[in-house]
Amino acid sequence: MVRLFIATACISLLILAAFADVEHEEHGHGHHHHDHDGHDHHDHEAHKDLLTGGMKIGSVEDQEEKLRIIAMNIDTDQNGKISREEMRNYIEERVKGQHLNEANDFISTLDPNKTEKVAFQSYIRDNYGDLNVDELETMDKSDLRARETRRNYLSDKAKWTHLDEDGDQYLTYEQFQKFLRPENYEDLRKLEINSIIKEYDDDNDGKISNDEYLKMTEAESGTAESLGEELDTNKDGFGDYEEFARYYLPTLSSTVEEETDHLMKECDADQNGYCTPDEIVKAYTSFAVSQITDFGADLENQKEEL
Predict the structure, then answer these.
(1) For residue 213, is pLDDT > 70?
(2) Of 60, 61, 45, which Cα lies nearest the Cα of 6?
(3) Taking the CA atoms of the chain, what radius of gyration do you get in angstroms?
(4) Distance CA 18, CA 47 (A)
(5) Spatial CB neighbours of 83, under 8 Å, sequence gap ≥ 6
(6) Tens-digit pLDDT profile for residues 24-79
(7) Positive or negative torsion for Cα 153, 155, 156, 158
(8) Would you give the DSSP letter of residue 229?
(9) Helix (H, G, I), strand (E, B), or coil: what is residue 241?
(10) What pLDDT, on the 0 to 100 scale, is given for residue 43?
(11) Could you count the other beta carbons within 10 Å of the beta carbon of residue 275?
(12) pTM score, two decimals?
């Protein structure tokens, strides 16, 4: 099931679509960050410029040359080949950098006067518009789409309250960055996933059945989907906490590991455990026509900070 969260938050894993082919589809999840990060861990569209740092080049030759330079920068020991560890470190650095940039952009929107704090009401107004959140908290479950909006709001409120140590309805920039990335903090991750299960677990057995999952997916996207093996990994017909956490909010570590494995497999043509710049360029050439491949910003806006 392919789904774009937000969120909130993705998110989305996976990463580096400059190397991703159309068949390497990952599930984008919509249960955190409410569309302001625009990047779920498994959302290649959101991560399409991670590898290139947001650069866009004209000709094929220019693209290949730029990619070769990038590959040489990934090769930190400059031995002419990229190990799995070097690839992993580069991916992790790019993901963390993008997360930080997105958080800073969001903060500049919510705190234009640079007070060093973000107000809960500013966040709610930006994410939920003119919705009456007080009514959301007391509404029944008959309206599925409104039900999912309520779940998101209550989850946001719970995470915010958890981080708001002095109870003043404001978060510091550091706290707000954590708020946007619940997958990286087990306490916040637990609040997010439990909010899903609590909302749709109608028989209160602590897990989501196929019937409950049909309602849940219809509430999320308007289309009911059956509980599949991608989520129900133990094939018992239910989605439990661990399965939902892995599927909806994969950790940064698992996201990076998964994408590292993917990229090494795509680039390591001779299967010797390393990727050379030539192999990376050839991998790019294979995927350059993919609809999800893009180099981001115009070259005139490029910053040589690789």
Answers:
(1) yes
(2) 45
(3) 21
(4) 9
(5) 273, 274
(6) 333 333 334 333 333 343 343 434 444 544 445 567 778 778 778 888 888 999 99
(7) positive
(8) T
(9) helix
(10) 41
(11) 27
(12) 0.75
